[in-house]
Design goal:
The complex is a heterodimer of chains A (76) and B (140). By secondary structure, chain A is mainly α. Chain A has one helix spanning 33-74. The radius of gyration of chain A is 21 Å and the shape is rod-shaped. With 140 residues, chain B is an all-alpha fold. Among the domains of chain B are: 40-100; 110-140. The chains are: A mainly alpha (76), B mainly alpha (140). Chains A and B meet through helix 1 of A and helix 3, helix 4 and helix 5 of B.
Chain lengths: 76, 140
């Protein structure tokens, strides 16, 4: 088993866009029909954007793990 | 003659002669490749040098892998932003249509509006970190 190294392994930066909380459109007080329709379409867009951020975060994490594996296996 | 020289040596002379002999032995021994390192200092120095070289190599390898991955990261982030912009454009178009519809200003049935707002508040209670929840939790 390889010895623990004092050298920091490879790291990838998580973009700010994927660390921010997701957004949720809500109805205002005294809501009108347009408010309901706007909130509905806004929520759809927010789901897509948030899911894309989630996918990017997962891909970044998986890529970082692959780098660490490659680095560990490259060492004697 | 040599016996006479030895007999005339004082104790200090004997000490000096002994020292000269030891130094000569060390010089000759070194020349013949004999190494005397009872505390293994040489071995420790070599170990330290080797360890530093290994660490430098590991550091360089880690940074090289990061640099190679950076290009792919930039592409992925670029694609994410393009996607977000496309979603924002589609949403903005739909919002404009909602606002300009004939019944845009028709108030929602109060009971329906209340049910929807109650659900918004419950969602925000369950996930207060979600952006936009400040508006739902503030009844004013």
């Amino acid at each position: 088993m390889p010895q623990p190294s004092p050298v920091a392994p490879p790291r990838l930066i998580l973009p700010d866009a994927v660390t921010r909380p997701c957004d949720l459109a809500v109805l205002p007080e005294a809501a009108k029909t347009a408010d309901l329709e706007e909130a509905y379409v806004r929520r759809g867009g927010q789901i897509l954007t948030c899911d894309a951020a989630r996918r990017l975060a997962v891909e970044t994490l998986q890529a970082e793990r692959a780098l660490i594996d490659a680095w560990v296996h490259s060492r004697p | 003659m040599s016996g006479g020289v030895l007999r005339t040596l004082t104790p200090l002379g004997w000490l000096a002669a002994f020292g000269v002999v030891v130094v000569l032995i060390l010089i000759v021994g070194r020349g013949l490749g004999v190494r005397w390192d009872p505390l293994h200092l040489q071995a420790r120095r070599l170990e330290t040098v080797q360890r530093r070289a290994d660490q430098a190599e590991a550091l360089a390898a880690a940074r090289a892998l990061e640099a190679a991955a950076r290009g792919r990261q930039v592409e992925a982030l670029d694609a994410f932003h393009h996607h977000a912009e496309a979603v924002a454009r589609a949403t903005a178009t739909a919002e404009t249509r909602a606002r300009t519809a004939d019944d845009a200003d028709t108030p929602l049935d109060p009971a329906r509006a209340q049910r929807l707002r109650d659900h918004d508040r419950e969602l925000c209670r369950l996930a207060p970190a979600v952006a936009g929840c400040a508006a739902a939790s503030d009844p004013s």
